[in-house]
Structures
1.
Amino acid sequence: DQQVKQNSPSLSVQEGRISILNCDYTNSMFDYFLWYKKYPAEGPTFLISISSIKDKNEDGRFTVFLNKSAKHLSLHIVPSQPGDSAVYFCAAKGGSQGNLIFGKGTKLSVKP
Amino acid sequence: DTGVSQNPRHKITKRGQNVTFRCDPISEHNRLYWYRQTLGQGPEFLTYFQNEAQLEKSRLLSDRFSAERPKGSFSTLEIQRTEQGDSAMYLCASSLKGPVYEQYFGPGTRLTVT
């Protein structure tokens, strides 16, 4: 039973436009969420995180929004660049020790 | 220190053989995690160390898997009697103790069991 779901396996966006990646979760006890980017043959790279006490966190071109009532978070990338093309994983902190529970990922393609 | 390192990057082994992977975390990080990732899936948690103590193990970690972090620095993950289903990317991550929960991942070890 997947606790973190990324329902869109892929997303294609034009350079300069906004990319919106979505993530849903089922466990209301989750209190910390993270986004990672992964290029082929590399490990995931941390992008941005958000605590459940906030509803928005921004870092440069990346903004994460959290809607606790809907158990939904999204990552906005503005403006999108070709170098943003990668697989994006949403993750939730799963326990007191901090292990992460990941979604299956969304492959973002930014076309020039 | 440039980040988490893992060795080897690739390992091909025959079914039934034992394999061992090594992870060197970021030096000031006292938490170390192992994950496994298969095609089309996100990383799945295997086990966690705080310093040298192994504090949590996933049910995914069968009896054939063992992990150590003897001096609270590097860690090893051993798989005994490998099976084809063990073929995956094995990822190591490290972090500081909470309340910061960001984990920093190494490049992974790709295991292929033939």
Note: The two ends of chain A are 38 Å apart (CA to CA).
2.
Amino acid sequence: DVKVTQSSRYLVKRTGEKVFLECVQDMDHENMFWYRQDPGLGLRLIYFSYDVKMKEKGDIPEGYSVSREKKERFSLILESASTNQTSMYLCASSPHGSGGANEQFFGPGTRLTVL
Amino acid sequence: AQSVTQLGSHVSVSEGALVLLRCNYSSSVPPYLFWYVQYPNQGLQLLLKYTSAATLVKGINGFEAEFKKSETSFHLTKPSAHMSDAAEYFCASPLYSSASKIIFGSGTRLSIRP
């Protein structure tokens, strides 16, 4: 059974803290993604990684950075958390190739609250 | 710009009634289209996928979707709603500029009345 796991389901942090969200997949997928989900806005891509140490900005990268040192792990970093980063964060992975036919597999999400 | 539009942020139907969730894509015909479902407090999972092999696509849990090029639509239906269908549904399409990425609609929350 394919699996994407996220380090925390719920997280509460204070403004200005550095926050790490971890994601691990066991499917040997090349692509990994971090999304932010807010009511009425759907999923918005923060960052995308297509290989180890490779990353690409998504639609809303400001205030975030990422790290991919190993193929199975993709970390999202909030350098200095702010209240407008309170949201649901979803990690996903997919294999390379097939011209867009590949579905993305999602983790359960991390609900982050910044006070 | 490429877009996927879902009409209706919230749909409410009675148990046993027809479910119809609407999705329209940008005018360029995409090679693939997806419907994902998100149950409460969970991540997204694939419901069904259009791959141009057939215009009517069957998915899990009795859902199906029909690709209509003339209407640029890919609406999701289920003949008889069940309480367990209450969830948020997302229509999605690969990005033309980068096929590994997916563009999602804004989502439709489906509620089921007893």
Note: The first strand of chain A starts at residue 4 and ends at 6.
3.
Amino acid sequence: DTEVTQTPKHLVMGMTNKKSLKCEQHMGHRAMYWYKQKAKKPPELMFVYSYEKLSINESVPSRFSPECPNSSLLNLHLHALQPEDSALYLCATKPEAGRDTQYFGPGTRLTVL
Amino acid sequence: DAKTTQPNSMESNEEEPVHLPCNHSTISGTDYIHWYRQLPSQGPEYVIHGLTSNVNNRMASLAIAEDRKSSTLILHRATLRDAAVYYCILRDEGNTPLVFGKGTRLSVIA
């Protein structure tokens, strides 16, 4: 099973809402990532988790709050977002060591009204 | 991170070979050359990677220049399903995440 699943596929939220994005994998990978991708742009790294601990935060605003409750799950909690946060949010995973392939989920398309 | 330069877009006819170039003149000795592609409405997917020698797999071939300052991804027979954005990415031996450049948007014409 080389699948990374993300839910929901689409999400529309207001600026005062609180919502969460979910990413799940059962490959035993110990590195997990959140990327943000605006239309017609490349993915931009947001957060990296290694062995369920946050190892990289690419200066992401605090209205995005990541969480890794266990080795199979990665969440991204959203609160007080702005319309410019509308984007495709991609989750990726990788075996911890070295230069292994990153596996990406299909993404969650987020629209902030 | 060492940077890569790719053409913004390329076009190919169906069932013809496609050569996607990538320049990486500041590559370091420990940087691997990775290629990923992103089909419309999907997350990126791994295509191929290499260090010094040319590499082949079921999806593509990777030709690496002798000085390693450039590389070429070769799709032997393009199909409509190969229309995607192709990203050339350098990554060192360490446990660093992928950092994407702008990529090349490949269009395939029937």
Note: The interface with chain A takes residues 32, 34, 36, 41-46, 49, 85, 87, 91-95, 97-103 of chain B (CB under 8 Å).
4.
Amino acid sequence: GQQVMQIPQYQHVQEGEDFTTYCNSSTTLSNIQWYKQRPGGHPVFLIQLVKSGEVKKQKRLTFQFGEAKKNSSLHITATQTTDVGTYFCAGRRGSGGSNYKLTFGKGTLLTVNP
Amino acid sequence: DADVTQTPRNRITKTGKRIMLECSQTKGHDRMYWYRQDPGLGLRLIYYSFDVKDINKGEISDGYSVSRQAQAKFSLSLESAIPNQTALYFCATSDSGTANEKLFFGSGTQLSVL
């Protein structure tokens, strides 16, 4: 079945440093979503990428979707303590049937030292 | 999201007991999902339903069953709980009519099977 690999599993940074998490799919994706889960909380949607090579920004967060639509990344510039949490990517293979469901990566836990 | 309500928030039970986790939503979404989260394993899909009377198995459906009693309600049952079903369970919803069809998660149910 479809696999979505996400690295690293953990990342600890000093406040102000940059952070990147990477996602790779074993199959071509129709789109990819990113979620953030704060400690003790539930996942919350951040963004969706659909187009090959797409780049989207949300303040200090930059999301990229690879040209082959099999990989994606989330980059945070100048981390803050509010960025702490687990970041998940989730890929969708197609538009119908069982391909439509999202497959989540295992997540990257980010901790920030103030 | 407060619009997706899971009950109970915490449950401790014994091996062999039957357990039901409830999920209700006021978002008017047609699609509902059950995920389990284990440390280091991310979010894994148990069952999903695209409409009332529509039930589909996810990645890890063995040992679980679901019921979609109404558009707003989706319950998860463990017929005979076992310790390796100890996990954090999330219900989620999505609207098939939206462009990105993001998932909205409930606050989760922490289940411990002794």
Note: Chain B touches chain A through 22 residues (CB under 8 Å).
